[in-house]
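R.M. (postdoc): so does anyone remember the format we settled on? I'll just put the structure tokens first.
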């Protein structure tokens, strides 16, 4: 957070060692200071129903690392241009 403003977006992975990405997303969406933050999820492990689950909890976009980075770059650019 800079000068009381949130970042334009955050890019968590679903699989993390301490806490999974779903917990991070829920925490961000439940905090009034970060509820409007755009969340782009990238994961190296394809999880059955992962895309549907993340989009249903308010994620802007879901990507797999095997799908390449062009979709990620496009989504990030769209968020930054719209701000």
């Amino acid at each position: 957070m800079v000068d009381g403003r949130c970042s334009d977006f955050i890019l968590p992975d679903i699989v993390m060692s301490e806490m999974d990405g779903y917990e991070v997303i829920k925490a961000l969406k439940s905090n009034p200071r970060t509820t409007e933050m755009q969340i782009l999820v990238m994961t190296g492990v394809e999880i059955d129903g992962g895309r549907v689950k993340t989009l249903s909890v308010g994620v802007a976009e879901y990507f797999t690392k095997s799908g390449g980075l062009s979709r990620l770059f496009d989504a990030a650019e769209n968020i930054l241009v719209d701000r």
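R.M.: ...and that's the designed sequence above, right after the tokens. Also worth knowing: The two ends are 16 Å apart (CA to CA). The chain has a mean pLDDT of 82.
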